[in-house]
Inverse folding.
DNA sequence: GGCAACTTTGCAGATTCGGCAAGTTGCGGT
DNA sequence: ACCGCAACTTGCCGAATCTGCAAAGTTGCC
């Protein structure tokens, strides 16, 4: 989390983690999930395969790590929003902040068409679906805690915070997917506002 | 799907599938996920390990198979609801029907305390979280299709059907979890009505 | 009865997973 | 500056999983 305040040790760990995750993503986008072995990812990141296992339990986990970090960033951002702010406004803002941080497309791949195509293939990979969901679920726990805190409810007793957290997670998934696929492209901000607006309105049927 | 109309062949396949899934669940509840090998599950169901792999790609898949089937049943039930019915009523009813079918606790384990305890441990298993979510996600595709059909929207273009499907999936997860943990126990019906009611109301903050 | 389609199964090779012990390196105390 | 501890990396190895392939056993249908 804190890329600044931390010893060399901690920094290096983060670097390896990110290097591994990114290597996993890049190779998967380029070759397809099945054509990437852990060995390749480790080599790409300059560590041993055994070290890979120290960081992630599987290929999927590594690939989804950035997704996971972003979700946690959003949860963290939510805690920072003023308590007086209506909850859906707060969530929308937190999501915007979280998405603003992580660049999903580092380096020079920004407008690369084949990269985008590979990305779409990757997120469509059935074996990764569960992994993405799992990452979201892990973050949802933090969400739920943040929401419980804000609304004075109890995570253990009340359904409310977990329900909102789950719904937000689902919404983020849909937004991410739609953003990736939409033709013509839509801005993340517009998508987020649209989706959270619908949620706050009780998901009325469109007509 | 059709346990009736089908040859002996199809019936046997379903039986094996269910036997495997249930063996996986039972052994996991009793011993814990890490102490169950595919070999054990296959033996329990009276087939070879190779056959296990013909049905499921992993232990996790086998364990969540029933969960998965139920989610699909709910999606199917939704299609049967009258088109005029308000959407949240239809979804609530479909969920009630879907849950009514699958007995999560066959045999004589119904009120068994240690069984319940094992179940809680099982659903808390991190390695299975993703699996559960994945099963839900697979069903969500059918949900989205059903909702799109009902509301005259387009799954590919509109965000609405996927958003609702995702939200419903999240809601079902929360309900299942709450139902399993709630002390004192709450009825599924009450939980479902509560949760879907909140969703339809735009998830207002409790006070 | 007999053929065609489907399912089960054993086997082998590739890959992944996780414990263990040895080697390295950052961090803090003296 | 020095030293010892704790953390991290790594290689090695065995257990477990996954998958293709071909043989053997079943089922459905004429």
């Amino acid at each position: 989390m804190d890329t600044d305040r931390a010893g060399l040790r901690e920094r290096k760990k983060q670097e390896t983690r990110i290097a591994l995750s990114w290597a996993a993503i890049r190779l998967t986008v380029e070759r397809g999930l099945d054509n990437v072995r852990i060995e390749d990812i480790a080599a790409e990141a300059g560590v041993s395969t055994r070290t890979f296992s120290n960081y992630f339990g599987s290929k999927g986990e590594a690939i989804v790590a950035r997704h996971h970090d972003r979700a946690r960033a959003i949860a963290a951002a939510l805690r920072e929003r003023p308590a007086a702010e209506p909850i859906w406004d707060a969530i929308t803002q937190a999501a915007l902040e979280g998405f603003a941080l992580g660049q999903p497309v580092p380096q020079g791949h920004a407008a690369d068409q084949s990269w985008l195509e590979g990305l779409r293939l990757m997120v469509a990979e059935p074996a990764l679906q569960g992994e993405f969901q799992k990452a979201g679920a892990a973050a949802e726990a933090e969400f739920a805690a943040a929401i419980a805190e804000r609304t004075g409810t109890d995570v253990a007793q009340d359904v409310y915070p977990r329900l909102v957290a789950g719904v937000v997670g689902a919404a983020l998934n849909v937004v991410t997917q739609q953003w990736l696929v939409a033709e013509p492209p839509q801005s993340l901000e517009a998508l987020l506002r649209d989706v959270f607006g619908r949620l706050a309105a009780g998901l009325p049927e469109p007509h």
